[in-house]
Automatic annotation (TrEMBL):
Its cofactor is FAD. The lineage of its organism: Bacteria, Pseudomonadati, Pseudomonadota, Alphaproteobacteria, Hyphomicrobiales. The gene is solA. SUPFAM superfamilies: FAD-linked reductases, C-terminal domain, FAD/NAD(P)-binding domain. This is N-methyl-L-tryptophan oxidase. The keyword Flavoprotein applies. It comes from Mesorhizobium sp. WSM2240.
């Protein structure tokens, strides 16, 4: 048995960031991943993830988003690599859109730079879009996208450089409190630590069974199309966007790497009860859904399909996160699920998890994410 200060279980977005922050604080830390780091079975892949400040989901996320930007820039400085690209973000919607109204409310409450654009002004600035005359948008100039595979790998690289250890292709069978800390049960051994962070993504309920009744796993399909008008949707011409349309909510990214125009429906696919079930291949119906959406709103991008991939949303009933100390033992930190909108916060959530694992508290306001809200 080997004793660590902290063991981090799961090395996706939140786990890799947690390992990074813990190792930088001089802790003896071990990260455990059941697959290879960078795998595509969970929620931390797909070449790009949106980031924005004016948070339509709820204004209380804005302070965390601000800190996330700071931490992403610090990661870039330390790694000497670019993971965050600012393009601006357009949040477009029909009259009464919760996305437009929510983004506007958050931007106004927190004094964020933004503009409200009518359909005509959107057409002048971004003629690629074909929108009904009664649509409007909130423009956030600070928005953009992250490169998740690169960011995760940099968090792990810097963590290892600071002394972190890793076990990969190693499933965790259980996490048990002891008189002196926690016990991590593996197939062939037991590891002792003062505390543990469980950042297991879609597999969280296997280690935190009290969460299982409150979680829904949703298979999401990511599509890359060969655009009809490549110049119209390349980086520098098209911002990151989300459209709250008549029949769907979908988002997209400029083509920044030559891999095609990426888009996806938000909360758009089937649901399952086990993480493995959601690894079903995308099919023609998924392609048609996104192609039809592009034909309606961004025909310049609606060319032939290049590829499709799946990822998983792990959702709570209120679609807020779960970041808290375990009710079973405060030396166990729970970090999941993120309900399909968490990646942008990984850099700050990693900091929060390190705080909780070391001190049992954090200066960041995470009261909205308490596990106790599901009681009763």
């Amino acid at each position: 048995m080997t004793a660590y200060d902290v063991v981090v279980i799961g090395l996706g977005a939140m786990g890799s960031a947690s390992l990074f922050h813990l190792s930088r604080r001089g802790k003896r830390v071990l990260g455990i991943e059941q697959f290879e780091p960078g795998h595509d079975r969970g929620s931390s892949h797909g070449e790009s993830r949106a980031i924005r400040l004016g948070y339509f989901e709820h204004p209380s996320y804005v302070p965390l988003a601000r800190r996330a930007y700071e931490n992403w820039r610090e990661l870039e400085r330390l790694a000497e690599e670019k993971v965050l690209t600012v393009t601006g973000v357009l949040e477009i919607g029909k009259p009464g859109s919760v996305i437009v109204e929510g983004s506007l409310a958050a931007s106004q409450m927190h004094g964020l730079e933004h503009e409200v654009l009518a359909a005509g002004e959107i057409a002048k600035r971004h003629p690629q879009f074909t929108l009904p005359n009664d649509y409007s948008a909130v423009w956030q100039p600070d928005g953009g996208f992250l490169q998740p595979e690169l960011a995760n790998s940099l968090h792990l690289k810097l963590a290892r450089a600071a002394g972190a250890e890793m076990l990969v292709n190693t499933p965790v069978l259980g996490v048990e409190p002891t008189s002196s800390g926690v016990r991590i049960v593996l197939q062939d051994r037991v590891i002792e630590a003062a505390s543990a962070v469980i950042a297991a993504g879609p597999w969280i309920a296997e280690l935190v069974p009290e969460l299982k009744p409150h979680l829904t796993l949703s298979r999401q399909v990511l599509c890359w199309f060969e655009p009809r008008e490549p110049d119209a949707v390349r980086l520098g011409k098209l911002p990151v966007f989300i459209i709250d349309g008549e029949h769907d909510i979908a988002y997209g990214f400029p083509d920044f790497s030559g891999s095609g125009f990426k888009c996806a429906s938000h909360h758009g696919s089937g649901t399952w009860t086990q993480a493995g079930d959601a690894r079903q291949d995308a099919g023609p119906a998924d392609e048609k859904r996104m192609h039809d959406f592009l034909e309606d709103y961004l025909p310049a991008a609606a060319g032939s399909l290049k590829k499709m991939r799946t990822c998983i949303y792990t959702k709570t009933p209120d679609e807020d996160f779960v970041i808290d100390l375990s009710p079973a033992d405060p030396r166990i930190v729970i970090a999941s699920p993120c309900s399909g909108h968490g990646y942008k916060f990984a850099s700050v959530i990693g900091e929060v998890l390190a705080d909780l694992a070391i001190d049992g508290r954090t200066r960041h306001d995470i009261s909205r994410f308490a596990i106790g809200r599901f009681a009763g």
